[in-house]
Design goal:
Elements lengths: L44 H12 L7 H9 L20 E4 L2 E3 L2 H11 L6 E5 L5 H8 L3 E6 L2 H13 L5 E4 L12 E6 L8 H5 L1 E11 L6 E8 L5 E9 L10
Parallel strand pairs: 3-4, 3-6, 4-5, 6-7
Antiparallel strand pairs: 1-2, 7-8, 8-9
């Protein structure tokens, strides 16, 4: 099964598990940083540019807004101190409580698939460390994000605010979405349920897009792009095989 925009996509590291240590990528290149948020000063710009060039552009991601956002957001601020040297490498990383920060390529793939632009209202299910929300906010989107694990939600909100990202956060069961803020132009789900939550579909605006991995726990899942047509029909497109952590529910 091929990913969108690629005839033969490169192997994708499962998002739900962190692999063994590997060497750091050294090439320099990338995209210009966005000016949507205050300038972020850090010493990892070269690492970000290398990440964008070698892991994202080389795999066919060409949305300039996505590339600029991922060049700008300091990914290392969203991982624990013990994983700082791994922050820009080509794999997911653990963030505690059985959750991960996704592989950079997967973040870029899902963000590009949303097709969202500045001012669009976007709902994220599964805040995790806050990195995906930061990328969306860097693109000028109006971001709402839900995390069910309070121990992750609180530090994620703190990091987002420290970096100047105006993101609306909530600690809750993401299965039911955020109905009082609906409809959304786009919904992105960063954990895998075994079926598509109908409440999330219902909260998409006409023309809206949801990107979500769906499949059994512990097995290969499928990354889906669902688009609501103007007449209310839901169109489905497979973006390829992935491996995400399970979608956690309140009763789990």
């Amino acid at each position: 099964m091929s990913c969108a925009g690629e005839t033969h996509p490169p192997p994708v590291t499962p998002v739900g598990t962190a692999p063994a240590l590997e060497s750091t990528v050294q090439n320099d290149a990338g995209a210009p940083a966005s000016t949507e948020t205050p300038a972020l000063t850090d010493d990892r710009l070269e690492d970000r540019m290398s990440m964008v060039d070698n892991q994202i552009v080389s795999r066919g991601i060409n949305d300039s807004a996505v590339l600029a956002a991922m060049s700008a957001v300091p990914r290392h601020r969203f991982v624990a101190d013990d994983w700082q040297d791994q922050a820009y490498r080509d794999h997911p990383l653990p963030i505690g409580y059985g959750q991960t920060i996704s592989q950079p390529y997967i973040v870029a793939l899902m963000t590009e698939a949303l097709g969202a632009g500045p001012g669009d209202k976007v709902l994220e299910i599964g805040t995790g460390s806050g990195y995906q929300a930061a990328v969306l906010a860097e693109m000028g989107l109006d971001v709402f994000t839900i995390e069910i694990v309070d121990e992750l939600a609180a530090p994620a909100e703190k990091t987002l605010r420290e970096l100047g990202y105006d993101v609306q956060t909530r600690t809750d069961d993401g299965y039911f979405g955020w109905p009082e803020e609906a409809p959304f132009s786009a919904i992105i789900v960063t954990a895998a349920p075994d079926h598509v939550p109908q409440p999330l579909v219902d909260q998409l605006a006409p023309g809206g897009v949801m990107v979500i991995p769906v499949g059994p726990i512990g097995a290969v899942q499928t990354l889906w792009k669902f688009t609501v047509s103007d007449d209310g029909n839901v169109l489905a497109e497979s973006l390829g095989p992935v491996g995400f952590v399970p979608f956690t529910r309140a009763e789990d």
